[in-house]
Amino acid sequence: MTLQQLRYAIEIEKCGSLSKAAKKLFVSQPNLSNSMKDLETEFGITIFKRNNRGVKITEKGATFLIYARSVLKQCEEMKNISEDKSSSSFRLIAQNYSPIMESFIKFVKLNSDNEKIKYELTNERGFEVIDKVYKQEADLGVLLIMQNSRDEFITHLEDRNLSYTPLGKLGFFVKVRSGHPILEHKETVFRELHKYPYVHYKESMYIHQTDVYSYDYLAFINTTKEICVFDRNVKCKIVSETNAYSIGCKMHPHLSKTFDWVLIPIPDVYTEIGYFHKKSIPMGVESQKYIELLKEELRGLIL
């Protein structure tokens, strides 16, 4: 086995095709194919199944590539020992929640003087965040977990040998513009909401949108009055300029000042925020720095 073979295998998985991977790697397809056959023979497994459409990774192959990524990652870290200490790398994957984003911006500002930096921030939904860290495509993951989904998420994390640390609970709110007619009905606000449109992202960061209506605490949502968007700014402008409402946690203070909104607490409902990483790999210094910054940004938001 060589590191080159591991890099080849990872690229083939990304491309889903030997021919596409060969072009990206600047090697001939026969040489790439022979290299993979040698690797499979050495370990006595089939990593890829070949077909007319390309290649499909096997179950054992998927497990093999997780270890392959780990080997390559640790080799890179070994190289850094002899390199300039000003070198810094950090890969974060998280749901798109403003305090998470603001703490990443602050992290970049504090480390921007390093001679060599490689920082990466990726936004995904809950289970996708977990699987990216499991596949070692990120160093650290940050999750927001609804209270009634916690057991499912914790099981998913434990099954993938990921270490999870909760940071605290966040309140969950209905968000409307200042002056919204609903504010005249303080005693019956959740009954009155049925009259107004609900605006949400195409993919909810808190819960699977297809399941949203099964939760009793969201029974006020009228399924015939929906506005679905992809962009946060569009969503915020709709809430600010119409009688539509959204649901979610408090935004970062920098953003909340921008929008003249009233937040109505949904009783007895909260979201847990926490971070996780691979148990088998010690948490890096950059991840630890980021977590401290995130804790600062969450101050005043945690219940």
Could you walk me through the main structural features you see in this protein, from its secondary elements to its overall organization?
- The protein contains 11 helices and 10 strands.
- The chain has 303 residues and is of the alpha/beta class.
- It has 3 domains: 76 residues, Arc Repressor Mutant, subunit A (Orthogonal Bundle), CATH 1.10.10.10; 110 residues, Periplasmic binding protein-like II (D-Maltodextrin-Binding Protein, domain 2), CATH 3.40.190.10; 101 residues, Periplasmic binding protein-like II (D-Maltodextrin-Binding Protein, domain 2), CATH 3.40.190.10.
- It has a 6-stranded mixed sheet. The chain has a two-stranded antiparallel ribbon with strand order 1-2. It has a two-stranded parallel sheet with strand order 7-8.
- α1 crosses α2, α1 packs across α4 and α5 packs across α11.
Question: What's the topology here?
Answer:
Layout: H1 3-15, H2 18-25, H3 29-43, E1 48-51, E2 54-57, H4 59-82, E3 87-94, H5 98-111, E4 116-123, H6 126-134, E5 140-146, H7 150-159, E6 162-177, H8 189-192, E7 198-201, E8 226-229, H9 232-241, E9 246-248, H10 253-256, E10 261-278, H11 285-298
Parallel strand pairs: 3-4, 3-5, 7-8
Antiparallel strand pairs: 1-2, 5-10, 6-9, 6-10
Helix pairs in contact: 1-2, 1-4, 5-11
